[in-house]
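Case study 2.
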Amino acid sequence: MDFIRDMLLPETDAGVAAQLALVIVAWGVAFWLVRRRSELRLVVLGIGLVTLGFIGVRAIH
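Prediction:
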């Protein structure tokens, strides 16, 4: 369980940077997979922005 907690809530700046890079790559791949469907693009865009928002709020807090 410690591994899952460390992946979701990293304690070091390097962990946060790795998590952010992973989110951006996953967001790009998901966006590329749904590039022809405008409704799904909006869903992927929204989920990605909410995820980046959570990372930003955690960084501020």
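DSSP finds three helices and no strands in the chain.
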